[in-house]
């Protein structure tokens, strides 16, 4: 068995850890869990830290348990939240749970012939028939209001939101999460709960409940909340979350997110979000420091995470799409892009619409009258004559030529290119 705590420590993945946790884990294989809130039908990269912790846990010989909060997801965790979230109905939650199961199987071995195969459980299964009276009688009496009020997540929420306060529904969340830990301890021999550092209060409520109800010792471990070097929230872009679902965030966008990280962030992220070993990472860091402009760290990070989430094939397509914009890709590479990826690759370039009825169209009219690719026909004539212009990645030099609609990619788009880096998109409507 590998030393799990030691592995996480050098990767920078431990924020808080209860005394005795490392020693307990080194005694032999055991079980631990991470809770996942099913408020969406896809995980996003904000979940990846917890998922990677479960991955390392399994690789170190222990049994990982992913708890999808079908019950607690109906309430909403107040930790570090500025306001109470909307409650989801049971059908929506069930749909979300099924989607999350499929995504988690990319990281954890649920079906292998190994004693520590992963398990996924839904806390709705043990909460749905537990009556409120029984819960407050059996569980509520063990944890005082004073104890619950002392939690940072509660104090911060109350101090920030003095006008509206906190509902009893949200206040009870830590007790419900604590009961999850108690149930898993009794039924799954799960002695450790892990999560983000914002979960420390909820997790320790669980260890305290186990101590008071069973007289047994349980353990807690949290990872730091990831921030970018500039202090901004990790995983957020102008378009929102970076999702693991390819329909919500395309593999190309996903790849670009990691590729565009800063040097400082890439050095941190490659330890947290990949399975590369310490020596390999140190070698990459050293190589990167010799020639930062080659972005060795970012390329290795983007490859590792994209392959893990979307597979080798989608990674290679994302690289090829990047080369279309930034490299020396030819027209065949351009034509191989699906429409969604094509539009994402060229989303920031100037775009023009030209009616289909305008074709066939003299090339100079197309470039300087129907669009503003060039400020004048004279400028267009000069660059075409100098062999500095392309349509759809193919050189075009005929200043007296006529452009037909059949050159449009997918029957919709013509990509005009001045020099190496200046692109324009002409959409046929």
Structure description:
By secondary structure, this protein is α/β, with parallel strands linked by helices. The chain has helices spanning about 5-10, 20-25, 50-60, 90-105, 125, 130-140, 145-150, 150-160, 170, 175-190, 200-215, 250-260, 265-270, 280-290, 295-310, 310-325, 330-335, 340-345, 365-370, 375-385; strands spanning about 15, 30-35, 65-70, 120, 190-195, 220-225, 235, 240, 350-355, 360, 390, 395, 400-405, 415-420, 420-429. The longest helix is centred in the middle third of the chain and has 16 residues, at about 175-190. Mean pLDDT is about 90; it is low at about 80-85.
Regions with pLDDT < 50 over 5+ consecutive residues? Answer: 78-85
**Fraction of residues in helices?**
40-55%
Mean pLDDT: 88
Give me the side-by-side strand order of the main sheet: 1-6-5-2-3-4
* Major sheet attributes: 6 strands, mixed
β-strand amount: 5-15%
* Structural category: alpha/beta
| Silhouette | elongated
Rg for CA atoms? 27 Å
Number of helices: 20
Count of beta strands: 15
Give the oligomer, counting copies of the same chain as homo and different chains as hetero.
single chain
Instruction: State the end-to-end distance.
Output: 63 Å
């Amino acid at each position: 068995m590998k030393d799990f705590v030691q592995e996480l420590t050098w990767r920078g993945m431990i924020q808080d850890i209860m005394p005795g946790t490392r020693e307990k884990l080194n005694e032999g294989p055991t079980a631990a869990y991470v809770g996942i809130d099913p408020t969406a039908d896809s995980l996003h990269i904000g979940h990846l830290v917890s998922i990677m912790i479960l991955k390392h846990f399994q690789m170190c010989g222990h049994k990982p348990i992913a708890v999808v909060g079908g019950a607690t997801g109906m309430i909403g965790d107040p930790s570090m939240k500025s306001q109470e979230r909307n409650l989801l109905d049971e059908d929506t939650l069930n749909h979300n749970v099924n989607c999350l199961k499929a995504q988690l199987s990319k990281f954890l071995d649920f079906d292998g012939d190994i004693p520590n195969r992963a398990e996924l459980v839904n806390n709705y299964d043990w909460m749905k028939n537990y009556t409120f009276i029984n819960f407050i009688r059996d569980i509520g009496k063990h944890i005082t209001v004073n104890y619950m009020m002392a939690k940072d997540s509660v104090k911060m929420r109350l101090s920030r939101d003095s006008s509206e306060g906190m509902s009893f529904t949200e206040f009870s969340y830590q007790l419900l999460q604590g009961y999850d830990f108690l149930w898993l301890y009794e039924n799954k021999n799960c002695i450790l709960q892990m999560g983000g550092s914002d979960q420390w209060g909820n997790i320790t409520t669980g260890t305290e409940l186990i101590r008071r109800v069973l007289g047994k010792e349980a353990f807690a471990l949290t990872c730091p909340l990831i921030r970018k070097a500039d202090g901004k929230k990790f995983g957020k872009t102008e378009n929102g979350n970076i999702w693991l679902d390819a329909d919500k965030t395309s593999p190309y966008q996903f790849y670009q997110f990691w590729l565009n990280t800063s040097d400082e962030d890439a050095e941190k992220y490659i330890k947290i979000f990949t399975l590369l070993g310490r020596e390999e990472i140190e070698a990459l860091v050293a190589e990167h420091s010799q020639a930062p402009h080659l972005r060795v760290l970012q390329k290795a990070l983007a490859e590792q995470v994209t392959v893990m989430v979307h597979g080798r094939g989608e990674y290679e397509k994302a690289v090829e799409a990047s080369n279309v914009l930034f490299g020396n890709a030819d027209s065949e590479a351009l034509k191989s892009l699906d429409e969604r990826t094509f539009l994402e690759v060229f989303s920031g370039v100037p775009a023009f619409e030209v009616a289909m009825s305008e074709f066939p169209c003299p090339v100079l009219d197309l470039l300087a009258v129907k669009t503003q690719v060039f400020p004048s026909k004279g400028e267009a004539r000069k660059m075409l004559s100098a062999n500095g212009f392309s349509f759809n990645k193919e050189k075009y030099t005929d200043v007296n030529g006529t452009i037909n609609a059949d050159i449009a990619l997918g029957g919709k788009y013509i990509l005009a290119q001045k020099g190496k880096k200046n692109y324009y998109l002409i959409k046929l409507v």
